[in-house]
Amino acid sequence: MKPHAARLISAGGRFLDALAFLSRLAPPRPRNARALAACVPWFAPVGLVLGCLYTMAAWLFLRLFFASPGAAFFSGLSAWFAVALAAWFWLALELWTTRGLHWDGLADLGDACGSGASGARFREILKDSRLGVFGALSLLLVFSGQWLTLAWHLAVGHWPLLVLAPAWGRACAVWLAASAPFHNPASLGGLTCAGVDAAVRRLYCLAAFLLVCLLAAWGLGPWQCLFLLGAQWWLTRRLAATARRQGGLSGDFLGAAIELGQLCFLLATL
User: Fold this and answer.
1) Which residue segment(s) compose the domain that 180 sits in?
2) Entry pTM
3) 88 is a domain residue
4) Domain for residue 9, yes or no?
5) Would residue 87 count as lying in a domain?
6) DSSP letter at 119?
7) What is the torsion angle, in degrees rounded to the nearest 10, for the CA atoms of residue 176, residue 179, residue 181 and residue 183?
8) What are the angstrom distances between the C-alpha of 84 and each of 69, 88, 148, 156, 179?
9) pLDDT in tens, 134-177
10) Which of 11, 49, 111, 142 has the lowest tally of Cβ within 10 angstroms?
């Protein structure tokens, strides 16, 4: 087999590993520490695929139910209700395709941080599968924030931004993994951190810069670009500081980073 063909097959396998790890769109694949670490650079491309799926589904939803002459039941509904339903459908697809994995991390981290605990007690709350008040409030705030911003983007036809939001969120997990040590090297958080070397850090920073430049050329205002970069930097720094203070990153931190990063992107690009 020629070297370039072998590299292409290897890259395809790593992409499928990342797709199977982050969603249910690919069949389960054999997991080992090396394979999980090697698929981390493909997190953002997987997010791009997911964003295309969600956005196309929302577009079809609007076309079929709100733009079809035969849809008599829906013909009298106002435009805001149409885009609200489409945004809800977008989020429902994300929950289904990802098995709610990242939202679970957001809830667990919300409970742990809201408790005010530290050290071993913080870790105990973080691992507790039961949903507490702070976890529920975290889910409510982030879900409602994403729902409202998605509805706004749908209403004004910002289709490229809806595609890019999941990719930005998954890139946020990579930026966080590059900014703080892991808690357990054998955990999902530890394996993700192991997959972020200097080359991956440079690649993701360059990709973020180029994406913001493209968004500026597309029409995003300079203050929006600055807000996006500044808010993302602050969010990553806060999560990294909390992780260092509480003994290192875990998968819950990375899952929360994905949903918070996605919300950050949707808010900054309004």
Assistant:
1) 40-268
2) 0.91
3) yes
4) no
5) yes
6) T
7) -20
8) 20, 6, 8, 13, 36
9) 999 999 999 999 999 999 999 888 999 999 999 999 999 999 99
10) 11
